[in-house]
Amino acid sequence: MPKSSRTPPSAPAPRPIRRLLVANRGEIARRVFRTCREMGIETVAVFSDPDRDAPFVREADVAVRLGGASPAESYLRGDAIVEAARRTGADAIHPGYGFLSEDAGFARKCEDAGLVFVGPPADAIAAMGSKLEAKRRAKEAGVPLLETIAVEGTTPAQRAEAAREAGFPLLVKASAGGGGRGMRIVRDASDLEREIEAAAREAKGAFGDGTLFLEPYLDDARHVEIQVFGDRHGDVVSLFERECSIQRRHQKVVEETPSVAVDDALRERMGAAAVSLARAIGYVGAGTVEFLLGADGRFAFLEVNTRLQVEHPVTECVTGLDLVRLQIEVAEGRPLPDAARRPRRDGHAIEVRLCAEDPEQGFLPTTGTLRRFRFPAGPGLRIDGGVEDGSVIGVDYDPMVAKLIVHAPDRATAVRRLAVAVDAMEIHGLRTNRELLSGILRHPEFLAGRTDTHFLLRNEPAAIVAALRASRATGPLDADAANALAATLAAQAARREEAPTLRSLPSGWRNVPSALQEASWEARLGGGASRRIDVGYRFGRDRLDVRVDGETVSGVRLGACTAREVELEIDGVVRRHSVHLHGPHAWVDGPAGASELVEIDRFPSHAQAVAAGSLLAPMPGKIVRVNVREGDVVADGDELVVLEAMKMEHRVLAPQAGRVAEVRVAPGETVDAGAVLVVIAGEQDSTEAGKGA
Amino acid sequence: MPVIASRLDRASGDFRRNREEMLAKLAELERHLDVARAGGGERYVARHRARGKLLPRERVELLLDRDAPFLELSPLAALGSEYVVGASVVTGVGVVSGVECVVVAHDPTVRGGATNPFTMKKALRAMQIAAENRLPCIQLVESGGADLPRQAEVFVPGGAIFRDLTRLSAAGVPTIALVFGNATAGGAYLPGLCDHVVMVRGQAKVFLGGPPLVRMATGEIAEEEELGGAEMHSRVSGVSDFLAEDERDAIRLGRAIVRRLEWRKSGPGPAGGFEEPLHDAEDLLGLASSDLRRPIDVREVLARIVDGSCLDEFKPLYGANLLTGWASIHGYPVGILANDLGVLFSEEAEKAAQFIQLANRSDTPLVFVQNTTGYMVGRAYEQRGMIKDGSKMINAVSNSTVPHLTLQIGASYGAGNYGMCGRAYGPRFLFVWPNGKTAVMGPQQLAGVLSIVARQSAEAAGKSFDEAQDAALRAVVEEQIERESLAAINSGLLYDDGIIDPRDSRTVLGLALSACHSAPVRGTDAFGVFRM
Asked: Taking the model in full, what pTM does it have?
């Protein structure tokens, strides 16, 4: 049982919140609004220019334009947000997660402006916001932790010495950091200074604070955190653990509760440690105490997140509590309700984060327009998303587009339900980590509960996705080929539906047939790879002649066939494909998986091709550094350009030794994916290559 | 709307026999088409491909809008002659950039795409269809010009091709030439007379005289490329409007030209919301009889062709051997004249003449469904004025100005061929089922007539008549007439626009009707003097 104790009521009388401004965007803004509607609280949104048409803006009673696109120009502008609250008569601000949620200065600004800040007191944020300070306080409170090495105020030599003593691997962390930004693992002493430099730059860019520290890095551990809640009446409770071990680049991918590694006794101990720390710092509201949990059951304090976590829904599922409602009630000065003071645990809940990123290409964020976003309904299923059909996923914000959460009586059922739901989603328009999520949820290690923080290092995302695809392909065509056939027939139906003349005649009719109708597609695979698929088809009197990549596919009949839906019967097995066509693009969801296809033009363009040796931007972003000039000689692997996108730096390296023939970008410039950055002439053709072509 | 009731017995012996015979005829048709599709044969096709070139049908397929239907015309041209089936040219009506066009594509794998008498007839027929129906005409040019050993049959009449091309242009029907290869000597006037010209770099050769001829004529030594290359014509002479990088690029440019024609059809569009026939077109195989002794129930046929199987019969109780009525096909209203029982009497002829006049009043296209043995002969009929009445019908058919489509589903004998809008009466399109037979009369009748005439002349000369010789002669004549009346032979002579699978009748008529509506659809009241 979680410990809770009551101190005599000394807090002021409850002050009801009437109108709440959410200083955030996307899914969390919608999540908070939902509870507000239930509680009868009016809502105010703030939005940046790219978010003008976002669902959360529409769903608020009133919305205030902040302008700008980058967080610094919009959601990080505390003054503008406080002013927005004033202008709209809001009496409280909910910061969500990220952005200003852990900015003590902002919390103070709210208080100074007479606004209720739905979060902990500014002092608690400040204490926990500095990770060094947080560790000191945790140590005082008797919470086990890992010793750290300061970076500031030490020379490289001193740091190297301290690091050698502590032993590698070490973790470089940003003191003001979160979400994995400014975080680096260093396995070799020779990399230490370079990684410190990079982490400092990233931290400075993301948080405006480049303060760093080092700590020992546990190679084999689970990430287990305790949800705590405190009220202004001195009550602090634990709402149990969440396990968030499966991470990529230190960002959580799968979260669940309970953890398979936590038994009642451990839960009791970890809960008690978390509560004692929270109590020590006078914590109020929702907070999360993160621990590393070793295989031997020992745990070490990592940090406190003084806000609502992304993964809070799993806790809500098993406890039946609405954590946002609790936050608001606590902010209003009410005591925690009995349901929170004596929380129950019921069943198992899992959350996966759907992100616009390519797991097979180092989790590179992807951008574009979400043409269609559909998710299934099902028992115990909950989807918290910030997007809808037509949403544009840009470079400015976090790539997470939605969270799928499932609640079931036991872990096995929860996993199965969630896996099916993940597969049933229709996500058209940009690549996501959906297949990786599906693959994880079917992975034997995950099913066996072997979910340490190195899960995705041990299991290559590409291998997980490949295994998933292999397991699902049935029939004579693999997923991409079947989807390409479906896309072809859907495109055919679209052309017939839109034909300006002879629309009612049979598709592709010939009195002297000589060839099949043809379509060639480029299937966009993960990791930037692609595959060409050639489809031929002809409607016979009572069958469909089909050829895929030159091979005849026999026994094909066509059921329903529209521009959006294709029912293919092959050898008596009917498979339904959902298709979304947009220009030459087709996104297809079939029973064996989803495909992104681009049709190859029948009439190839004779416009100039890209010069050989051109290095292209891997994604849209901003040029941070250009290390070379025209004429420079470079070695294989030299860093040429550094691109920042989605807050991450991407290094563009020389793929071969050669001479720089052309530099097409300058620092500060924003480039699209595929833009030519630098042209390298190989050693043998160093005079001619890159001169245009 | 009155729906045609079907009483078809698919188990009947006639149905099964008809179907078997028809499937055999369709298989034979496919064999003929295989020859046409093979063009110049494997060796020449391989050589053509080795040059990186596309075959004529591949060029046409790329030119057409994807998934749109394409009606190839006269595919059996030259069948039964010394020339390759198909006559070294592919023609048809198809959709390019949303516009119904006539396409003419030379087949360079057959004697270099040279023009023989059948090529000429086929190309002229395609251009006639373009002119009558106001369909933009796209020529995919690669031809060595006249087939020189046969130049006498081609040279003088072949001039009509260039004449008709510029007349098309004068009539406001766009003409486009995509030049993939040779277009030399007279052939150079193909691009020369088109409104829009695209030439393929490194392939097009367009000159009045090649290097040898120039050297013979003037002593000048010149290279092919400077005399008639695509680059020269695009940059220097201006014979070409667009320089295409390759064949696909030329086709892309051709499609872009059509898109920018801003072409609008002049006739009314189809009505929407019509229904497909209620009965299966597959049954047509069992309805089509190859033997005049097994009649074809034309109502059962129409029930598988017209929208919703709906037909409003006109004068149903009068002249019952000829069905007349109003229906629609793929949304286009039509008047239908269909032989039910093959013989036409005075009543049928008068009924037809009146119906044709009515269709002209309401600007409604006419569909003639032929299965006729001709006008009735005999004392009573001659005395009643069969000639006067037959003339009324032929007068009406000849002077009617609404579009006519003719579908021959059986026999087309005697003057019935004329009255029912045979080839000479200028239907916009004429298609024949594989069981179709066309002749002045049936083989037995014709042989019998010849025998009687021979017997009479023998008697008049006082000679004895050799019965055995007569029987042998009759058999030979019957066999010759039977052969000459066959659909494939007539199709080879371009007496129709193609033999079609009966199951495609509705599609073919729908496509043809749509093509007709590219031109204005207007009736007339200016008929010849009706002999009363």
From this structure: 0.83
